[in-house]
Specification:
CATH architecture of the largest domain: 3-Layer(aba) Sandwich
Largest sheet: 7 strands, mixed
CATH topology of the largest domain: Rossmann fold
Number of helices: 8
Structural class: alpha+beta
Helix content: 10-25%
Number of strands: 24
Distance between the termini: 19 Å
Number of domains: 3
Strand content: 15-25%
Length: about 525
């Protein structure tokens, strides 16, 4: 596998197994289920490489797949199902690859816009959520905050809600070592930057791709930090920096210095999420203008990584959005206009960012899964991780690094629809596709898997694997799925019958690379 993966990623693989269904006729039907031979279970045809002809599958199943030892191993399946509407059908494409997240001579470039919250709540402890001077962080932290004598809660006889010292259980605390959310965020961000830079290297340690990064910090206001003083760009290629650990066990370069320089203000000035997202969006636009001739960098490999610990309460600037904008949530703060706009304007920026194909990945620092701030982050992000302590914050960044690596090795599927077939809408999966030739009777769906987030299973099993449990030494199945609806036009001449090889073939081309 590793040797095969070293081939150029622009290699085109032609699918060798085609599937179809028996003729669809123009006979009246209450639903398209009745138009498929065999009712809800289609009859499929497979392609015989030896004879170059179609043959009906002796044992019809719900998915026909290929599993040829190509480069790398890929399974492609396509299923047609009826709907409640005559002449409309749902097509489900599935691509499963056992490829590992490996490096290749044609590895694509990537861009991460890092956005870090520096509001005063980031001074609170990352492990317990309390302020630095809280009783929980004192030298004699374990015990009672009232008597300051007992070292732990011991239920009294007859009243289990009170300690033997006489004070309530709520007055007793477990020991906690104070570390601010800000310091934990810096450590996690620096570790991420180092690993992100390392992901650009091949197995011999040679840098074969760019790993661009920008940094925005925010509280009541936002600032896009100039990471590259040597140029006019706010972006820097972290893969080109020195990531050798110093004698003190720390990294020393301009990105590390910039991240360490992010500190909360002396006085609270609120949380403005809209403006930093706007700066990140503008930074990405400028990067893609600068890299207009770089065919190794695409929006599919661009990410906004947002870290925060609360809800917005300062209304930043609102961008223009198109008519397709729909809010991700109905959160409006406490009813004040500024709070309403602080949510609304941020969601508009999220919409614009995600419309370009850039993914929004977020890490919310907190312990409460029902907190409005976490629910809001989760609703508007492609992925959101809840980090209840410093270790989970680092783990969140690790998960996103894994997703970026997976994206670097993903695929693109080209699926011609055939004559008399037109695209209607997406039914399931992410909207990472485009349809060409609409209105020409020769439409083609192009599905960019690199923009999708796959489901991961242990190889050859149905056991799901979380991203933070993925190991380089193990083999997994990465499964991508998209379902879309098509319309059959059987009103024209010769359209009363549509044969399998006219519109229900497997995707013609599966391409791998940037």
């Amino acid at each position: 596998m590793a040797k095969r993966m070293k081939r150029t990623l622009s290699l085109l693989l032609t699918a060798v197994l085609l599937l179809g269904m028996l003729p669809i006729t123009a006979a009246a039907a209450e639903s398209s289920n009745q138009q498929i031979e065999g009712g809800n279970v289609p009859v499929y045809y497979t392609y015989n490489e030896g004879t170059g002809t179609f043959a009906q599958d002796a044992n019809p199943i719900n998915a026909v797949t290929t599993n040829k030892a190509t480069d790398p191993e890929v399974t492609i399946s396509k299923v047609i199902q009826g709907t409640g509407t005559e002449n409309q059908f749902d097509i489900t494409l599935n691509v499963t690859t056992t490829q590992k997240v490996e490096r290749s001579p044609s590895m694509p470039d990537a861009a991460v816009a890092l956005v870090i919250d520096k509001s005063t709540s980031m001074y609170d402890c990352v492990n317990c959520g309390e302020s630095e001077n809280h009783r929980d962080h004192s030298v004699q932290s374990a015990g009672c905050s009232k008597c300051k004598v007992c070292t732990g809660f011991t239920p009294s006889t007859g009243d289990s809600s009170r300690c033997t010292c006489g004070h309530k259980k709520s007055s007793h605390y477990d020991p906690c070592e104070y570390q601010s959310r800000m310091d934990a965020a810096k450590e996690a961000a620096i570790a991420f930057a180092a690993e992100y830079a390392a992901s650009a290297k091949d197995e011999n340690g040679n840098v074969i791709a760019h790993r661009y990064m920008s940094l925005t910090k925010f509280s009541g206001t936002a600032e896009l930090i100039d990471l590259n003083a040597a140029s006019a760009s706010v972006w820097i290629d972290v893969a080109a920096l020195d990531w050798t650990l110093g004698a003190d066990g720390q990294y020393h370069n301009s990105v590390v210095d910039a991240i360490n320089g992010v500190n909360p203000p002396s006085w609270g000035d609120g949380t403005n999420v809209a403006d930093p997202l706007g700066l990140a969006d503008g930074a990405l636009d400028s990067l893609f203008r600068e890299q207009a001739n770089n065919d190794k960098l695409s929006r599919a490999m661009s990410f906004v990584l947002l870290l925060g610990d609360g809800e917005p309460n300062v209304a930043g600037a609102a961008p223009q959005v198109d008519s397709g904008f729909v809010r991700y949530t109905n959160y409006n703060g406490d009813g004040w206009n500024a709070d309403y706009n602080s949510y609304l304007n941020a969601e508009k920026w999220v919409y614009n960012i995600r419309q370009t194909g850039t993914k929004l990945l977020s890490a919310y620092v907190g312990v409460d899964q029902t907190a409005t701030g976490y629910l809001w982050f989760n609703a508007m992000s492609n992925q959101c991780q809840l980090a209840a302590n410093a270790d989970e914050l680092v783990e969140s960044f690790d998960i996103y690094l894994t997703l970026i690596k997976i994206s670097a090795e993903a695929w693109e599927v080209t699926d011609p629809m055939g004559a008399n077939i037109s695209f209607v809408s997406k039914q399931a999966g992410e909207a990472n596709y485009r349809v060409t030739g609409q209105g020409t009777n020769s439409e083609t769906l192009i599905w960019t898997l690199r923009n999708d987030i796959p489901t991961v299973y242990k190889h050859g099993t149905s056991t799901r694997v979380d991203y933070d449990k993925i190991k380089d030494s193990e083999e997994y199945d990465f499964v991508y799925s998209l379902t879309y609806r098509v319309q059959l036009d059987n009103t024209g001449a010769g359209a009363d019958q549509v044969w399998p090889d006219q519109w229900c073939d497997l995707p013609d081309v599966l391409s791998h690379g940037p």
